[in-house]
Design goal:
With 591 residues, this protein is of the alpha/beta class. The protein is built from 17 helices and 18 strands.
Length: 591
């Protein structure tokens, strides 16, 4: 590929050759020789450049390493910084042209130091920079881009070395030791429904007296019984029944909306992670149930370090879920996916591999029932609707559809369907962009103004999961519902019945509603609509009012049956969960 400088040199050489040929009979053969010499020298340089690039590319090896202060890691943590080291090396005798290396920076992280570019010197290059993970989920490294050029700057070639690597990002570790109980237990009669384990532990009720064994702490020696029996006697105390807490995490489409790391799902995962770590640090049991519009997945309450890591991994998998609309705008998504496809998959988008035939729209036009009805469709026949822009658009869509069909592992039938069906094509584009962690817009309302993400099926799934947890649970458990129910006030009857069953069996239920970061929390003064406000401002004020009204309606409705309702914008969500667990451990349930 010629650079502008190379094109100018080629045009000058051709012009000098042509001019010298015309004037050779009068001026001699000097000018044609100069022009032909320039052309020959340019051809030789082009051959050397192509040989250097084509010969060295298969012999270049790419290595990537993510490190922290202790060494290489394969799992990252949100809120922590890590060093990314990229090495490019190759052993060859053919000299590599001048080359620059650029690492494709992931979307889901923030660069806090270093540079993502470097110069290849002697077939070797090294890039080192520092990243900071902002939220739980995953980050994906696609590969590096190499830009080759000759020393004179006449030729340019770009190659993408694809090496997809995915690193899971776990939720951040919190200071769980600060949330552990430190108050002294008193000898009180446990209320009905709360029992003690009949085994030795660190409680306050005396279990039994036994003979002293070497290694027992001196403070556990019962001195009065020891004096009466003339031998050392050790006291053993009862242990308390650990409180079980189950987190119901909403992973539906409504909480996935928004920028990655700053949406409602990220806040829900953060609350569940912090509360679970504090619960397990208190030697209690923590369980997890994550659900969407279709099903719920249960993780039994347990404790231990292995169980904690398992919960964090599950929460990381939830945090990386992308939004997906059933009515996607294929044209908008195509404008975002096409540059990404040309950058990451240049060899698959090459016209020599992914070709386009200009006669396809003529012989095989798009079916009328799959078209959007416009004025031109009604007035003009199908052969008059074809234009240069329509041909260019069809060529881009065909190449992108072929790439999507290959990524999905489908056959030629899928290629034809992607070319003609806009809805199927839009869903495939959403999946492609989500897989490469590229942000994309999602329509919130249909053409009738109906909210697309108010799914009443989610309430049924949550109610069934809550009843199952109550059926398999023990006495006095805590169920924490982290669910978005703002648009579902009229469909909460199954959830009310499930909550009544849970409360009737001496359990506690807390509802924590996700709250968007760009909307002020309840209790703050709302901005009144003024005549000089724009349409966008009016829509924002109306959306804020709708959120506040919906939250107050849910709080009043579920508060009547004994459910504590708060929003995630308030900072005491984790502390409220720990306080409720402490009440279940020490005091009885107030009916």
């Amino acid at each position: 590929m010629f650079t502008p400088r190379g094109w100018w040199l080629l045009l000058i050489a051709l012009f000098v050759t042509a001019l010298g040929t015309v004037l050779s009979t009068q001026r001699g053969g000097t000018l044609p020789i100069i022009g032909l010499t320039l052309l020959a020298w340019l051809a030789i340089e082009w051959v050397i450049f192509q040989v250097g690039v084509r010969w060295n590319l298969p012999r270049l090896a790419l290595e990537r390493e993510v490190r922290d202060e202790r060494g290489p890691v394969v799992t990252l943590w949100a809120g922590h910084s890590f060093d990314v080291l990229v090495r490019l090396h190759g052993e060859t005798r053919v000299k590599l042209p001048f080359a620059l290396i650029d690492d494709r920076f992931p979307f889901a992280v923030k660069r806090v130091g270093g540079s993502v570019s470097g110069v290849v010197i002697g077939n070797r290059a090294e890039i080192r920079y520092r990243i900071r993970c902002q939220s739980a989920g995953q980050i994906r490294f696609e590969g590096v881009r190499l830009r080759f050029a000759d020393r004179q700057g006449f030729f340019l070639s770009e190659v993408f070395l694809r090496q997809p690597l995915i690193y899971p990002v776990l939720p951040p570790l919190v200071d769980a030791e600060a949330n552990m109980r430190t108050d002294k237990r008193h000898n009180i009669l446990m209320p009905p429904g709360i029992h003690r384990m009949r085994r030795a532990g660190s409680g306050s009720e005396l279990l039994e007296l036994r003979d002293y064994r070497p290694g027992d702490p001196p403070k556990m020696i019962a001195w009065k019984p020891s004096a009466r029996r003339d031998k050392l006697i050790t006291k053993e105390f009862e242990t308390e029944v650990p409180v079980r807490c189950t987190f119901f995490v909403d992973a539906s489409q409504s909480v996935r909306l928004g920028p990655p790391g700053r949406n409602a799902l990220a806040r829900v995962v953060e609350i569940a992670s912090s509360a679970a770590q504090a619960t397990l640090a208190n030697r209690d049991h923590a369980g997890l149930v994550y659900f969407d519009e279709h099903e719920a997945v249960h993780v039994r309450p347990a404790r231990g370090q292995r169980h904690l890591i398992g919960l964090l991994r599950r929460l990381a998998e939830i945090g990386r879920l992308p939004p997906s609309a059933t009515q996607a705008d294929a044209e908008t998504l195509m404008q975002l996916a096409l540059p990404l496809a040309y950058e990451v998959y240049p060899e698959l988008m090459d016209p020599s591999v992914n070709s386009w035939r200009w006669w396809l729209p003529i012989l095989f036009p798009k079916p009328e029932y799959l078209r959007k009805l416009t004025l031109s469709d009604a007035l003009l026949p199908w052969w008059r609707r074809l234009s240069i822009s329509a041909w260019i658009h069809a060529a881009k869509r065909k190449r992108l559809a072929a790439l999507l069909a290959l990524q999905q592992g489908a056959g030629p039938g899928a290629l034809s369907l992607l070319m003609e069906d806009d809805q199927y094509f839009g869903l495939a584009l959403q999946q492609f962009l989500a897989e490469h962690q590229a942000p994309y817009p999602v329509p919130l309302y249909n053409w009738r103004g109906k909210y697309l993400f108010a799914s009443k099926e989610k309430v049924e799934v949550l109610s069934t999961a809550l009843l199952r947890a109550v059926r398999r649970g023990h006495d006095n458990e805590l169920f924490v519902l982290l669910a978005d129910l703002y648009e579902l006030e009229e469909h909460l009857e199954p959830l009310r019945r499930a909550i009544r069953v849970a409360v009737g069996r001496h359990h506690r239920v807390i509802l924590i509603c996700p709250w968007p970061t760009d909307i002020p929390p309840p209790g703050e003064a709302l901005e009144a609509q003024r005549p000089e406000m724009t349409i966008i401002d009016r829509r924002r004020v109306a959306a804020i009012e709708r959120y506040h009204v919906g939250y107050e309606a849910i709080r009043r409705d579920l508060g009547r049956i004994g459910v504590t309702v708060i929003n995630a914008a308030r900072g005491e969500a984790v502390q409220l969960i720990l306080d409720r667990m402490e009440q279940l451990r020490v005091a009885g349930i107030r009916r």
